[in-house]
Design brief:
The protein is an all-alpha fold. It has one domain (about 5-35, about 45-60). The protein is globular, with a radius of gyration of 11 Å. It has three helices and no strands. Helix 1 (about 5-20) runs antiparallel to helix 2 and helix 2 runs antiparallel to helix 3 (about 45-60).
Length: about 60
């Protein structure tokens, strides 16, 4: 994912973490996408933290 593409990464991670189809849902991939964006500047963004929580919940 390109630097600066925080919100596209967030949107894709949300989709992967919450998709209703088990075949498309992938919490591990969602974590890989969202975790780098939740550290450092901007890491306290509620949208990013919500996606991080959804991905973590999916992984267990």
């Amino acid at each position: 994912m390109r630097p600066g593409w925080v919100f596209p990464a967030n949107n894709l991670a949300w989709l992967l973490a919450t998709h209703p189809d088990d075949a498309l849902r992938n919490g591990g991939e969602a974590l890989k996408l969202i975790e780098p964006h939740t550290h450092g500047e901007g890491g306290d963004n509620p949208a990013l933290l919500s996606t991080l929580a959804a991905a973590q919940a999916e992984v267990g």
